[in-house]
Amino acid sequence: MKFIKNMVRSVMNEAMDEALSRLIKDQYTENMAAMVPVGRKVGFPNFMEILMRSAQGTPVPRPLGSYIHFSPWESLLFNPVHLFRMPTPEQLGIGTSVTIGPLARKPLTISIPIMIAAMSFGGALSKSAKLALAKAATAVGTATNSGEAGLMKEEREAARLFIGQYNRGGWMNTPDKYKQLDAIEIQLGQGAQGSTSQRTSVKNIGEEYREVFELKEGEPAIIHSRLPGVNTTDDFIQLVRRLRDETGVPVGLKIAATHHLEKELEVALEAGVDFLTLDGAEGGTHGGAPTLQDDVGLPTLFAITRASQFLARKRATGKVSLIATGGLVTPGSMLKAMALGADAVYIGTAAILALIGEQVVKSAPFEAATSLVVYTGKRTSELDVDMAALSLQRYLNASVTEMELVAQSLGRTSLSELSKSDLCTMDADIARTTGIQWGWAGPEERIQAGAESALFMPHPSQISEPESAERYTTN
Amino acid sequence: MNGFQGNRPNYKGTKPKGDHDMIETNDMKQVLHYLHAEIVRIETMSGTLSSVEREHYQKLTNFEQKELIDIAVEEQSAARQLGTIKQMCLNMSQQLDGLIRNMDRGADNEIH
Questions:
Q1: Which of A144, A229, A249, A327 is least enclosed by beta carbons within 10 angstroms?
Q2: Glutamate synthase domain: from which residue to which, for each copy (chain A) (predicted)?
Q3: What is d(CA A441, CA A293) in angstroms, rounded to the nearest whole number?
Q4: A347 and A416 belong to one structural domain
Q5: What does the alpha-carbon distance between residue A57 and residue A95 come to, in Å, rounded to a whole number?
Q6: Do A335 and A222 fall into the same domain?
Q7: Rounded CA gap, A435 and A428, in Å?
Q8: Does some domain include residue A49?
Q9: Residue spans per domain, chain B
């Protein structure tokens, strides 16, 4: 044995010496070492995606959304209290429930402010993954979402609180289906895809998929860029009113967050929606074009801040619920989104990773962990549904408990009580644009520091005024 | 049928007519009072049970055994869901309170 070890060691030593010599002596242009600066210049994901595009000739479907951290959550910190306001006594339970659509005839009340995001059966996830999500959501008293799919009977039965997407594929858009939902989310876009169309080719559609989506054999599943039947603002308004009248459950709108946010929300409020779901640019997907993920939309942090301010201006705070989603992967960022004005959050990527949990060993090291849960995955049959549901239940409990600990330290008795006053920021620009206090200086010094600051961040409405615009002329 | 149900008025939602109007209104008020009182009781019960479940969570997490911690997690979820029921009851009792006060105000207006 020792002889073999020495042999291997000797061979490896020779090989390493040879490789190092070549790295040092070869012309840089022909050297493997050139891949290091090239890799750093292009970035590893971009490098791989260039090669994939060159091999496939079609957009490469990157799973789980952009890797770019658009929202600077780490620049926000919570402000614990000690004396001027006392921390909450530990014997007191922190309120975690939230009512979505309080003005609807049948509002949706959830026990924790974290919901399972829209991830469709077939288009994204396997049936077993969807059932595990529904079971975990039910166990903790929260809601799960159908995604852009038809109504899967087993999922509806497993989920006590089920939000269904009235979708651009048209698969949930008939009364026999949407009348079985606890809330209706009209899906016009998503953070990772904008409002673009999507297509699932026939080779990726199995028999059960066809059944749930009511597709004919050989028919692809197409998500249109527009909702069928909604070609004008007025069509949308009429649709919301009709669905509210017909069902009584909260009817909401989900869009990809964009810089046109306020204009979109204006229409939504006119229609009388009960809730708004804003999916930031960091939003995930089962597989989408990297350009749509990395270069389109508005980050979640800014989308929620702007939407919350808009609702306040329109006196709709507390009447229309605001749901944040997109890139919320830590309990801290979820709670910060709530402090910025979100009533609840959706999680997708984090929920999927938590769902896989200890079962990751089934796919490692030769397959991606997602092969256990995506519809087209090679190992979906190996996912233990009950174990997956338990893993997610544990994760949700741990996350909400961490959020409760922060609330206790802030002297709050419910997670919904958190506001911007519980936050400070290390970023002066965020302080100026969001109204969160700047942590570098106390409130009084801050006024002086702000006055001396050379940078002035204009509000969009100020830019359109000629007098204000002149201030930004650079000559 | 238990004793309490037997004693409370049986409001069938029939259309009130003439002298029956006042009787029907009184019946409905009594039903609302009954619902209000029961909802407040459910609110109190769920609040108490929520505290008990939360204590169970604390006690069970003192042990290092995984099975017990899983039960503790379930207890914690139950505590939150009971907290939700308490909140829902509070909202409902406030709505009923409003209805009762509106009915009282209506009756006062008729008298004056």
A1: A229
A2: 105-411
A3: 36
A4: yes
A5: 52
A6: yes
A7: 10
A8: no
A9: 31-106
Tell me, what DSSP letter sits at residue A449? H
Of A366, A353, A359, nearest in space to A383 by CA = A359
Instruction: Quote the tokens at residue B49.
Output: 């049970």
The parts of chain A modelled with pLDDT lower than 70 are 446-475
Same domain for A313 and A238, yes or no, is: yes
Cα(A54)–Cα(B35) distance, integer angstroms: 69
**Structural domain of A11:** 2-42
* Residue recorded with tokens 């070492």: A33
Are both A448 and A401 inside the same structural domain? no
Domain shared by A339 and A392, yes or no: yes
Q: What is the crossing angle of helices A127-140 and A385-410, to 10°?
A: 40
Task: Identify the domain boundary among A404, A422, A440.
Answer: A422
ipTM metric: 0.79
Which residues in A lie closer than 8 A to residue B73 (C-beta atoms)? 393-394, 397
Q: What residue type is A229 in one-letter code?
A: G
Q: Verify whether the Cβ–Cβ distance A97 to B87 is below 8 Å.
A: yes
Please report whether residue A286 resides in a domain.
yes
Give the pLDDT band (50/70/90) at residue B6: very low
As beta bridge partners, residue A62 has A288
Question: What is the per-residue pLDDT for A469?
Answer: 38
Separate counts of helices (H) and strands (E) for chain A: 18, 15
The answer on A313 and A407 residing in a single domain is yes
How many folded domains does chain A comprise? 3
Q: Which of A323, A281, A270, A277 is CA-nearest to residue A113?
A: A323
Task: Give the one of B70, B81, B91 whose C-beta lies nearest to A141's C-beta.
Answer: B81
Neighbouring-strand partners of residue A95: A414
Same domain, A292 and A439: no
pLDDT the model gives residue A366: 84
pLDDT at A420: 95
User: Taking an 8 Å Cβ-Cβ cutoff, which residues of chain B contact chain A?
Assistant: 50-51, 54, 70, 73-74, 76-77, 79-81, 83-84, 87-88, 91
